[in-house]
Amino acid sequence: MTAPEIDPVVESTAADIAEMRIRGAATIADAAAEALATQARRTNVTDPEAFRAELRVAARTLYETRPTAVSLPNALRYVLRGMAGETVSQLQATTIEQAEVFQRDLADAQATLGEVGANRLRDGDVVMTHCHSTDALACIEAALEAGKSLEAIVRETRPRNQGHITASQLREWGVPVTLLVDNAARRYLDQVDHVLVGADSIAADGSVINKIGTSGLAVCARERGVPVMVAAQTIKLHPDTMTGHTVEIEMRAEHEVVGDHERTEIGTEPDDEDLQVENPAFDVTPPRHVDAIVTERGQFPPESIVTLMRDLFGETTGEPWEP
Length: 323
Ligand code: RI2
Known about the structure:
The chain is of the alpha/beta class. It is 44% helix and 12% strand. The chain has two domains: 8-112, Up-down Bundle (Four Helix Bundle (Hemerythrin (Met), subunit A)); 122-249 and 279-313, 3-Layer(aba) Sandwich (Rossmann fold), CATH 3.40.50.10470. The protein contains eleven helices and ten strands. The radius of gyration is 21 Å and the shape is globular. The structure holds 1,5-di-O-phosphono-alpha-D-ribofuranose.
């Protein structure tokens, strides 16, 4: 059999995810499902085994882009497990259909989750956000649609400033926004009714893996008595953590934090190995600092999320893109 041919759309989607031109756990999952559907649609193979091999390699290419958001492997698993049939055209049809179902369910889940999350928000509340999460924003959008008026304190979220995307979306919806330097959050928490964040992964013990800075914010919120709400579709539940695996925290490039020019200002050369820069993209917030995880299946105390994980995933997972 010749080497599987990967569609350029799969390659470019993988590059866009790795470089964060496509980002946000739900958006990444959606793009990955779309890329697998494109691979299936545009294949040139005539042999069913070759088709399966192509899809597996395409899935692996997408999988190897970023390690932390479990929505990516969950999406790939879901689509590949729907690939069925005896002929290439049957395999194509089932794969494309499964990807479409996945994308539809993803959008529906976010809308449902938003309605659940909105129930926690009261008219006049002030919400503090971190990073940019479409799941968290869905809760705010549903509350606004229900006629509630909200204000937001939006953390910048260095080093990539994704808080600016959140601020832009909230202003589009007419929400008054205060854009806040990350380090100032504790000072403003006494004006806040809810901390509302998303998640890239949720572990079986209820730990929340989200954008770096979330855990410090949650600790401060707990100290100030401000409830912490995590908006996360069930696609963010990490099945491997049920069998003791931990979630890998992505380490990103130094240049996102310190460029060559800044290095020179600090007084070191770009190749000075004795000035190390650490740039973890995510951190882990223990369940004791989280009040509620809001999903499309309802709201859960973090410690009970494992029951939902067992319902949805069973006890074991294999990787369908493994040869
Ligand atoms: P939604 C993002 O990660 C943020 O950490 C955000 O909270 C999370 O994904 C979930 O986003 P990144 O891709 O799925 O910006 O709620 O590193 O949109």
